[in-house]
Amino acid sequence: MRRLTRSTVVAVVVLSMVVAPAVAAAGTGIAGAGSATAAQQQSTVTLTVSLQDPGRTAVGGAELTATWDGGSATATTASNGRAFLDVPEDATVEIAVDHPQYMRNSPYVVENATEQTVSITVRRQGSLTVSVEDGGGDPVGDTRVVLRADGEVVTNGRTNADGGFTTGTIERREYGLTVVKQGYYRVTRDVDVGESTRESVAVERGSVTLSFEVTDDRFEPPEPVADALIELETAGTFRTLDNGEATAQVPVNADLDLVVTKQGYETVERSLDVGESATTVRLNVGRTPAVNVTAVDDRVLVGGRTVVTVTDAYGDPVADAAVSVDGEEVGTTGGDGSVTLRFEEAGDRTVVAETADGTSGELTVTVVREATPTPTATATPDPTPTATETPPATTAAPDTGVSFPGFTPVTAVLAVLTAAALFVGLRRRTDE
């Protein structure tokens, strides 16, 4: 075995003295960082809670429950009404109070918690029973009852078949009471709630007039829509006049479903919250999207052209509409909604247009090889009356029973002259 010299031993000892503190220091630094992180994650503040009644009398023996996102804490108030709650700093904390005689209608809220003293007021427990009846003293069921304090709803519900509604346990204090039912006027009053308070409320039936205005705002200004059918829940159906208006008598304080329909127009559905004052309901309806296609000529020669126009439900031209012939796209419409088509084959051709709103019906264009003239009726002029000359009166010759076809007065004269000439010639021959 090699023997260590005195210088070697001294070097080892010195090295140990240098390295060990350095390692220890490094370890100490890592542990310190971890502790700081843990402390940062658990940063808390203390809320000092002072519980008292409206007369500032301390309330002891109350259990406090503080809750926040991801945690909770509890404490009990001492006889001086104080308790301490450790909560996360800057957290939103809700503090609920549980006591045999005192209560709060809602938890107390602390925003952005810091080290502070919080004063919380509690009141003695009470309840309220409301009875609702009509003018004849009969109970009115399914009536909504709302109780408010400081502008906030504390509790609400509906009466039973006997017209009654009882709150749960609430603070003894003054509340705003509202009783409302469809078809009845609303009743609002203040009520002081004690240990066990009863309140009777009488309600009265009522109705209100609604005026309807139905227009189409595609036009400027919007145009009235006549003969639109308005279906109103519980109130019946009504039709608009030429000015697009209609009126209806409906129950007060009602939530009604309304439907407006008309052929060629889209259906409009709305919910109406009817109050107790006459009001006007304005409704806008638009025509059902449609694509229409027409042609300047629906009968052309082979090799001929026709202009096809695509319009929407309002008759306005539709640009960029795809036009197909017999299922094959052949062009798109321009800004004026038209496109010129040429047909090279005879027969009935089917033209269809398609846009973002849908597809048109089929348009048939008949293509023929030669024009077929259409007979044109020629007017025949009325004959013009012609004056007829009246022949002079003649003496009828005696009837000999022999007819000479073709004899006229002229031929008769010629015949007489001829006979006379023959007679003269015959006599001369006799004299010779």
From TrEMBL:
UniProt superkingdom: Archaea
Region called Disordered, residue ranges: 371-399
Keywords: Membrane, Transmembrane, Transmembrane helix
Transmembrane regions listed in the UniProt entry: 406-426
Name of protein: Carboxypeptidase regulatory-like domain-containing protein
